[in-house]
DNA sequence: CAGAATCCTAGCTGATACTG
DNA sequence: CAGTATCAGCTAGGATTCTG
């Protein structure tokens, strides 16, 4: 399948673009939910219980933590282990696939670090132009 | 500033995680809008006029094309050139910063290609488990 | 402890109509 | 051609309450 694989030339046809973009957008949609990245980054440090995650991911509601974890679990990025004791204990950890996300995320992170200032400048200039008009 | 730069060890403290994640999430939020990636990928092939973009990005409404282009322009990822003739001509092209997104996006794309099947399997198993319950 | 269920609102999005 | 303006539907997300 033709994709956006590392190479010098971008996709040529629209069909190529679409086939390359659709799964990427699905994944980005998942990992760019408001909280997914925070959870993944917390779990990169190691397995964690539900309540630990809630403490580590500042500001997340119980609903969104549950919901986001379910989505990540559904995609096989996060593993969920229930220990049926009272009170219940549930541990979350990244799957191998989830840990492999670190490199791609680092690539995006690097881009944001390299370009953060340029983005900020661009926004200022954009705002200035808007005000001039 | 401490970030998620390419390295073997993930961020250690929550503060590190947050500082690394916040700008990344902003960027992902931008580029993972429903249409941004399609537009960026179309423009990776070269500059394009508004109407060309609309033809290349199948299904996008005129409103969302305008809106998404404005956001990408605001961030300095896309450059907009107006030629004041009648009828008006407006060309869009990726900035240097925008073109640099290709490598990070390729990294994510590679992940999706490598793991697409595993994600699909995980979803099936998840659905099967849900039905069993 | 780890959630499920409910209610509610802001904002994204599409469809449509109009303009320099 | 390349937009702007307006309206309406949907849903992501937060706050709150309840439970095994």
TrEMBL record, chains A, B:
Pfam families: HxlR (PF01638)
UniProt cross-references to PROSITE patterns, sorted A to Z: HTH_HXLR
Any one GO molecular function term: DNA binding
Record has Transcription as a keyword: yes
Domain (HTH hxlR-type) ranges: 17-120
Keywords assigned: DNA-binding, Transcription, Transcription regulation
InterPro entries in the cross-refs: ArsR-like_HTH (IPR011991), HTH_HxlR (IPR002577), WH-like_DNA-bd_sf (IPR036388), WH_DNA-bd_sf (IPR036390)
Entry-linked Gene3D superfamilies: Winged helix-like DNA-binding domain superfamily/Winged helix DNA-binding domain
Keyword set includes DNA-binding: yes
Gene Ontology biological-process annotations: regulation of DNA-templated transcription
Annotated protein name in UniProt: Helix-turn-helix transcriptional regulator
The organism of origin for this protein: Devosia ginsengisoli
Phylogenetic lineage: Bacteria, Pseudomonadati, Pseudomonadota, Alphaproteobacteria, Hyphomicrobiales
């Amino acid at each position: 399948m033709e994709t956006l694989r590392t190479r010098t030339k971008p996709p040529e046809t629209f069909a190529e673009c679409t086939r390359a973009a659709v799964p990427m957008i699905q994944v980005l949609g998942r990992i760019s939910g408001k909280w997914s990245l925070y959870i993944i980054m917390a779990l990169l440090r190691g397995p964690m219980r539900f309540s630990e995650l809630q403490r580590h991911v500042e500001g997340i509601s119980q609903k969104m933590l549950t919901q986001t974890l379910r989505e990540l679990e559904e995609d096989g990025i996060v593993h969920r282990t229930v220990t049926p004791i009272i009170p219940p204990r549930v541990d979350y950890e990244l799957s191998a696939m989830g840990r492999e996300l670190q490199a791609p995320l680092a690539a995006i992170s690097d881009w944001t670090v390299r370009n953060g200032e340029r983005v900020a400048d661009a926004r200022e200039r954009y705002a200035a132009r808007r005000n001039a008009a």
